[in-house]
Amino acid sequence: METGGSFQSIPLFDVDELFEKKSQSEINRLRNVCHDIGFFYITNHGISKEFLAETFYYTRWFFDLSLEEKEKTSILLSPQYRGYGRYKQEMTLGKPDYKETVDLGYELNTIEFDEKTKYLKLQGPNQWPLSEDLNDINSPAAKFKSHMLEYISKVHHLSKKLLSLMARCLGLSENFFDPFFNLNSIDAFAMLRLLRYPAQLSSESADTSVELGVGPHIDQGCLVILLQDLPGLQVQNNKGEWIDANPIEGTFVVNIGKMLQVWSNNYFVATVHRVLGSKTVTRHSIPYFAEPSLSTVVLPAKISDELLKDCHQHVDKIESAIYGEQMLAVFERSFPKN
């Protein structure tokens, strides 16, 4: 797995400065950060602090439901891998994660697939809690659904801005990624995850050891836009040091995934990161995974010779990949019992 450069902190960018004012000096800095670190914060992103606070409110509301109620939306019931994953159900590199999960995506109809296009099974409906209450627009369940779909819409539009900046960093057309991230595509895809990392120390146990919430890994997708309420996320630099990426109010953490690294001809870097567990504190995080259509063929982009000579040479080189195949393999590894 790849680690970034010898950084000691995670940089912050002003989206307004990058996107609206089109500051070339900031684009150059972003290019360097995507090449050397693969992680950064963004501020002035256009989503209000009040809306983000509501997102945490509804996330906690779901996880505070009874286990019996949450299990009615179990991810094991969904061919699309949508729904609730109980504590330690998901696997990372063969080890259970110390977290609970909810996986959501675009509300789209299922589409037919065959053995060659099995990845198209990932498209389909979400599972919503307390579904019998959804017709009452004032019910918590209906408000949860409405808010999460609005969140997906808002962060999708933010991701399109960020992807246009990524394209500029690579010397490509600003709209290079647009055809691949088109919501009107029959197999459009993205994923929103709600995560709870429960406090691990039980008052009934003498064991004071704490497991990692999630072990060291890179994200396999394209671009991740993360909202978090408490510290715990750490990013590994090329000295093997773990650098904190603690929450900053009103910001998102953004990181490069493996497929965007491939798309960039290995100029960008998907960096190893992990989540610490806690004895006493329960942490929530909400990553949005900006993904292209499932049938997208990811090919290394034609970038300039100047950038090409600085591409990372010690990573696995992928000549091409069907995006949906990569995503289905990730789900099958993470939920082997589905």
What do you see in this structure?
The protein is of the alpha+beta class. It is built from eight helices and 16 strands.
Brief digest:
The model has no long low-confidence stretch (mean pLDDT 92). The protein is of the alpha+beta class and 338 residues long.
Task: Please give the structural blueprint.
Blueprint: E1 12-14, H1 15-20, H2 24-36, E2 39-43, H3 49-63, H4 67-71, E3 83-85, E4 91-92, E5 95-96, E6 100-104, H5 140-169, E7 190-197, E8 214-217, E9 223-228, E10 233-236, E11 242-244, E12 252-256, H6 258-263, E13 273-275, E14 283-290, E15 297-298, H7 305-308, E16 321-322, H8 323-334
- For the largest sheet, list the strands in their spatial order: 1-2-12-9-14-7-6-3
| Beta-strand residue fraction | 15-25%
Give the % helix. Answer: 25-40%
Q: Outline the low-pLDDT stretches.
A: none
Succession of helices and strands: EHHEHHEEEEHEEEEEEHEEEHEH
- Rounded to an integer in angstroms, the radius of gyration calculated over CA atoms is 19 Å
Shape: globular
Distance between the termini: 26 Å
Mean pLDDT: 92
Helix vs. strand class: alpha+beta
Counted beta strands: 16
Q: Describe the main β-sheet briefly.
A: 8 strands, mixed
Number of helical segments?
8
Descriptive keywords:
about 350 residues; about 25% helix; single chain; 16 strands; globular; 8-stranded mixed beta sheet; alpha+beta; 4-stranded antiparallel beta sheet
